[in-house]
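Each lists chain and fold; for instance:
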Amino acid sequence: MTVTAPVILPVSNMNCGACVGRVAKVLASVPGAQEVNVNLANETAQFQATQPDTLSRAMEALAKAGYPAGAQTKNAAEAEAGREETLHDLRRRFIFAAIFTLPVFILEMGSHMIPALHHLIMRTIGMEASWGLQFAFTTLVLIGPGREILTRGIRALARRAPDMNSLVALGAGAAWSYSTVALMAPDLLPAASRVVYFEAAAVIVTLILMGRWFEARAKGRTGAALRALIGLQPDTATVKRDVDWVTLPIADLTPGDVIRIPPGARIPTDAILTSGSSAVDESMLTGEPMAVTKTQGDPLTGGTINGNGALEAEVRAVGADTALARIIEMVKQAQGARLPIQGLVDQITLWFVPAILALAALTVIVWLLLGPGIAPALVAGVSVLIIACPCAMGLATPTSIMVGTGAAAERGVLFRQGDALQGLSDVDVVAFDKTGTLTEGRPTLTTLRMADGVTRSKALSLIAGIETQSEHSIARAIVDAALAEGATPSPTTGFTAVPGQGAHALISGEVILIGNATLMAANSVDISAFAAEAETLSLMGQTVFFAAYKGAPLALLAVSDPIRETARTTIETLTAQGIKVAMITGDSAPTSQAVAEALGIPHVMAGLSPEGKQTALDSLRVDGRLAFVGDGINDAPVLARADVGVAIGTGTDVAIETADVVLMSGDPKGVLTALEVSRATLRNIRQNLCWAFGYNVLLIPVAAGALYPAYGLLLSPILAAAAMAFSSVFVLGNALRLRRLGARL
């Protein structure tokens, strides 16, 4: 069996969709690298390494291709500091470029737009001096803040792997070179073509820097939800060492340590409460606003907030084994996911830049053959190079995924698999497990009917006495109900369980029985007075049994698994959306049918084995794509078989291995949240892709001069650069609208 290890690498120098395609192609060629996925939005590459040297080979191949990568070892603080440093550098470079570009723009474009300014320049410094100043300032912009763009672009061209930087380098370089020839060797050009485009070269680089600065700021906001999760864990904890309490870093904790959690503090790590009680705010993990009361023996999840109680707890998990760490890892995987819809985009962008280079060359040739001279040919060629940057195409999908999955995580919905985000958006059938999914998953005493002459307190005391000796979940429910009413369990001896029937014991030397009708008949106990009610309760899906004392009937009891409060709303909403709803369960048909009728579920398949559940699931596929919602533990095979498996549970009990989507809150209404996030994200991706491709389809012909024969219009390289920068910022801004989902859901 091949052992695989997941790898996430930060990759440098990725600027556009073409870069994504090349990085993916390089990694796919590395022996042992499988399931490659490259994400432009967070500038990472993910893959499964199946050989010991796969990682080192991958890093070597990426460096050789011009995309150096480093191991992802930064903690949250270091990563945030790195983002801030990058933002500061881009802002500084943009301001520097703008300061020197502004006079160039005023000298050249200002004199064209304002005749008085043109005459002033000619009367004072003259045209040659004006061109000389433009040359000096533009050169400073290119070799200063623009140097990185130009050098990366030229290196990519030298490797025969042109990218966005190559387009900018060729466009700005061509404008600067032509203008320099017009300034310093004008005799080489026809008299009518002795013009300069220094302002185009300077403005192009400045607008590119501005666009990248805006992109970096927007990218920072796309990962806000993940950084919020990472920031949940405290740095230190108060730990008991011998008889003293000391403050230690979280990294020094080990399972078994006893920690103290003061009121209002974040719980340092996963633990079991050993002393005290408090209401704990788990909203950042589950999305549920109501605090959860915790008492001795209850689990505590690292990152949640203690209420007003002082607590002591025993550490159960640390580091990567904690629920919070697992959640963060799932969010990272989801945000780096590659949806099926991205495949076509990657193929297009991989060949897009070479195609644009060829189109720009063809544009120049056609203009030279049919146009009025060299200058218009240069303008058209440079405009095509600049406006066609595939940045927006590369950002269209990953940015929406990052923001959408982050908004879902804030509401306790975690997408583990990228294709689930796309697949869930168009499901036709949602099948639910019953126990623990639509119901609470814990039995509760719902009916207690005493025989004539028996008081409720006496019945509860006697019944609780025998049930305290049993480990059955139903016995636990009865004891809890008795204690809640203040009953004191009677002392019991000689407890004996009767398999399939119940149990008997002695209280004050007399026999007490508790169990089904078979046990009562075997001991000659007449329960005919309860027969009618017992049948009614059974038809309602409740588990009915009886108690007898001293050979006489004592009480009828019924236990059921309560339906979750939000289950009905969830089913009604799904049905209203045109989605077929079904129940697939191993529970008995009467119980399952009763729950289905209470919730309005028309299709019920009950009494099924795990294999039978899979067969039932397959029978529903005739109605379309299928999602299955289960507790994620005993439903693992069905979750894996469904088109989309949705595990429902708590933050400390999630279906990490088999589910595609995990609902942290344990509430079926999370299915509605997951569906809304999926649909909104896919809708957002389609909007971004329509914009990115539509923008290029419409404006590349305009840049090439398609409007010139009819209207005499030729797109300026400056406007092309502005449109290109705006395109990427538009895609990012549209993706950021998904952040509103967190407030809406």
Confidence is low (pLDDT under 50) at residues 651-656. The longest strand covers residues 552-560.
